[in-house]
Amino acid sequence: MNATIAMITFRAMLGRRRAVLLFALPLLLAVLAALMRVLDASDLDTAAAVLHGFGFAVLLPLLALIAGTGVIGPEIDDGQIMYVLTKPIPRHTVVLTKLAVAIALVTVFAVVPILLTGLLMAGGTAQLAPAFAAGALAGGITYTAVFVALAVISRNAAVIGLLYVLVWESLLGNFAPGARSASIQQWALSVTDALTPTSYVHASVDLPVAAPLLVAVAAAGAVLAVVRLRSLSVVAAE
C-alpha cells in the first residue's frame, strides 16, 4: 500500500462525475427498501428478492465496475499513470493500492447499503442481512479485481465490464445454466446461501466450489494487472 497514491485516488474518485453514481445507486436501494417498508411488504421473501435482484444483480457489479475502472483507467487513458511509473514504487504496490481503494469504495457504497437494507427489511431474521453483506463483500472483491485488470489491459474496460454484467450474468445467466454457474454473482450468492437458513436464497454453485473460484479469479485479476502495468512502464522507457 502507498498512502499518497491511495489519498490521491480517493480524492479523484470522489471528485469526479463518477461520484454521482457512487451515491445514486445506493440511494435507489435505500428508497426501494423504505418504500417496501412503508407498504408493509418487507417480509423475508421480498427482502431476499430485493437484495438479490437489485443489490447483487445491479448495485454490486455496477459499483465495482465504476470503482474498478475508475481508480486507474482514466490515468492510463490520459497518460498520467506514467508519472507514477517513473517513481521508485514497485508496480505491484501501485496495483494493490488502487485495488484497495476500489474495494474500500465498493464496501462503503455497496456492501454497507446492502447490509443496512437487509436490516431495514428483515431485521435479524434468518441472519439474512449479514449473510447478504458477506456475500456482497466476497463478490465485490472479485468483481473489483477483474475490473481493475480490465482497466489496465483495455481502454474499453467499462464497455467490456458492462457487457459481462448485462449479457453474461443477467441475460445468459437466466437461460443458460453453464453461464449462471460461471458467474461471480452466483459465486457470491453461494456465500450468502451458506450463511442463512432461509430457503429464499439459493445459489447455482455450492460453496466448496464457489469459494476457491472467488479467490482464484480475484488473485488472477490482481496478477494480470501487475504484469500488464509492468509492460506499460517498459514501453514508456523505450
Automatic annotation (TrEMBL):
Transmembrane regions listed in the UniProt entry: 49-73, 94-116, 128-150, 157-176, 209-227
The keyword Transport is assigned to this record: no
One Pfam family it belongs to: ABC2_membrane_4
Keywords (A to Z) from UniProt: Membrane, Transmembrane, Transmembrane helix
Keyword Membrane: yes
PANTHER family referenced in this protein's UniProt entry, alphabetically: INTEGRAL MEMBRANE PROTEIN-RELATED, MEMBRANE PROTEIN
Protein name listed in UniProt: ABC transporter permease
Organism of derivation: Actinomadura parmotrematis
